[in-house]
Amino acid sequence: MADIRRVAVAGLGSVGLRVARALDEGMDGLRLVAVAASSPESAARRIRDFRPAPDIVSLGRVADEADIVVECLPPAVFTELAKGVFGREGRTLVVASVGCLLTVPGILEKARASATRLIAPSGAVAGMDGLRAAREIGLESVRLTTRKPPASFGETVMVEGVAMPTASIDRAVQLFSGNARQSVAAFPKNVNVAATIALAGAGPEATAVELWADPSVAVNTHELCVRSRAGEMKVVCANLPDEANPRSSAITAFSIIAALRRLDAALTVGS
């Protein structure tokens, strides 16, 4: 019988709680042993029906408890978690805040030094297997255009250096145009998709990104256009927002769950 690997979920917001619940309900080869959250009291209430109840630990202790750590945190505290994971050799870190893989200095080198395996699920975008294949033959251009309802950016958003109430936006407004690394720095809570595409494809400097606040769209929409020596690929994803957190797409948590199931699958589909 294969060994059961221990899993901890760091962050119990809408995404983290859904992932933790899926683990509690059962995944082949995996067992939920711990969770970490900013409020242990709130965490205890959220997992009160889990059986058996996982331990509630600090971010610094997560990697002590588990072989696989699933990060579902605000980007601001990602580094604290990563430091603890890198302090224990041979862990696997599943990253929801994919933008941090571009903005945290030296993170890939630290992962290699500690034999940490980093996994970035596809999240709110499709086509990553095709993009990786196109990279092998030779990419010519990669462009992501993201359009979101203005309210998904919060009450205000910066437009040409001026704070604009999102409720007043009555036409499509371009918030950003540049490369993926720049986009992640400018909008760290909204463009994990850009980081995912950059890491799978042409890299952060060679991946073009546009971000729009667009009242004509009802849902978060990502259009990925790829040209390579193999041909052209266009992928459009129109994702419903997460009911508990409109800044995230509803599919994000399920992408993480699918990535976890893949870890112990006898058959995997897609490169």
The dominant shape is globular
Radius of gyration: 19 Å
Number of helices: 10
The structure class reads alpha/beta
- Our count of domains comes out at 2
Helical residues, percent: 25-40%
User: CATH architecture of the largest domain, please?
Assistant: 3-Layer(aba) Sandwich
CATH superfamily of the largest domain: NAD(P)-binding Rossmann-like Domain
The CATH first-level class of the largest domain comes to: Alpha Beta
Quaternary state of this entry equals: single chain
Largest β-sheet summary: 6 strands, parallel
Mean pLDDT: 94
Estimate the strand proportion.
25-35%
Point out poorly predicted stretches.
none
The first-to-last residue Cα distance is: 27 Å
Order of helices and strands: EHEHEHEHEHHEHEEEEHHEEEH
How many DSSP-defined strands? 13
Give the strand order, joined by hyphens, for the main sheet.
3-2-1-4-5-6
Tell me the CATH topology of the largest domain: Rossmann fold
List the main descriptive attributes of the protein structure presented here.
single chain; oxidoreductase activity, acting on the CH-NH2 group of donors, NAD or NADP as acceptor; NAD; five-stranded mixed sheet; 271 residues; aspartate dehydrogenase [NAD(P)+] activity; Rossmann fold; oxidoreductase; six-stranded parallel sheet; 13 strands; 10 helices; alpha/beta; Dihydrodipicolinate Reductase, domain 2
Short description:
The chain is of the alpha/beta class.
Notes on the protein architecture:
The protein has 271 residues and is of the alpha/beta class. It has two domains: 5-123 and 252-263, Rossmann fold; 128-247, 2-Layer Sandwich (Dihydrodipicolinate Reductase, domain 2). The chain is 30% helix and 28% strand. The protein is built from ten helices and 13 strands. The strands form three sheets. It has a six-stranded parallel sheet, sandwiched between helices. The protein has a five-stranded mixed sheet with strand order 10-11-7-12-13. Helix 1 (14-25) links the parallel strand 1 (5-10) and strand 2 (30-36). Helix 1 packs parallel to helix 10.
